[in-house]
Write a structure and sequence with these properties.
It contains ten helices and nine strands. With 265 residues, it is α+β, with helices and mostly antiparallel strands.
């Protein structure tokens, strides 16, 4: 689906907006069903929702055990995203079957959940953005060694992370990105936007972050040419030079590994 929705200065990830809208529809719809049958207790729908969120997160963490085992506290960082939808829907359906009464009300809530689940999977598939060409790389400078020439990147897949030292989520994800860049089988380019070498070098030194993958785009050209409306943004470019995946906001180790696996195929 389109990666973002921008309303003036407000930038939101479209998938998270859709998820929030469907969650609200479930809570409101199930509450109306309960009132129709003379039963209050919207907490029952809330319990189903909580079980769904926990199950979806646990399933995602289990599927990405290796990534989370390096940093278990990150499993609690649900703001980064990372949920297995089918597991969450199944858990919510079980709680609905267990707690919602009378039976006709339970059946109607289950049908509501099924419709909303179909809406999620359908919208996710129908609105998925097609791959788009990666714009030409501007002249980048490296803090250490030499920046890769544009023709070097044409031969294979790579990842571009757009970041800045003044950006809080950029600062949180940067140590993990720098660590993965050292061992990755394909280039992970950490392209700073709009800052000079002295500023970036001082920040890296003060925070003990390796700068071997850091590049400088002092004119913030990539932010404009890739139409990235917010920092950080991570772009996954395949071997044909197409952006096949975009992650807006702080990225987790698991999501980064997923994106790398997709473009390395």
């Amino acid at each position: 689906m389109p990666e973002i929705l921008q309303l003036g200065p407000l930038v939101m990830a479209t998938d998270r907006l859709l998820a929030a809208a469907l969650v609200m529809a479930f809570l409101i719809g199930s509450d109306r069903i309960a009132l129709r049958y003379g039963r209050g207790g919207p907490w029952q729908s809330g319990l189903a929702l909580l079980a769904g969120i926990l199950a979806a997160r646990l399933a995602y963490v289990a599927a990405h055990f290796d990534a989370f085992s390096r940093d278990w506290p990150s499993a609690l960082a649900i703001c980064q995203g990372g949920f297995t939808a089918w597991a969450g829907i199944a858990a919510a359906a079980l709680v609905v079957a267990w707690r919602i009464r009378p039976r006709p009300a339970m059946i109607r809530v289950e049908l509501l959940l099924a419709v909303l689940a179909l809406a999620w999977f359908g919208a996710s598939e129908l609105l998925r953005p097609p791959p788009r060409p990666m714009p030409a790389m501007p002249q980048l400078a490296a803090l250490q060694g030499n920046a890769p020439a544009p023709e070097q990147l044409e031969a294979g897949p790579y990842v571009v992370n757009l970041w800045a030292t003044w950006c809080p989520p950029c600062r949180r994800e940067l140590p993990m990105l720098a660590e993965m860049a050292q061992d990755a089988e394909l280039p992970i380019l950490l392209v700073n936007q709009g800052e000079d070498a002295a500023t970036v070098q001082a920040y890296l030194a003060a925070n003990g972050v390796d700068g071997s993958a850091v590049l400088l785009d002092t004119g913030s050209m990539l932010t404009r040419t890739t139409q990235s409306s917010a920092l950080p943004t991570t772009l996954f470019v395949d071997g044909d030079g197409m952006i096949v995946r975009t992650h807006m906001g702080e990225i987790s180790r698991a999501a980064l590994s997923d994106g790398i696996a997709q473009i390395a195929e």
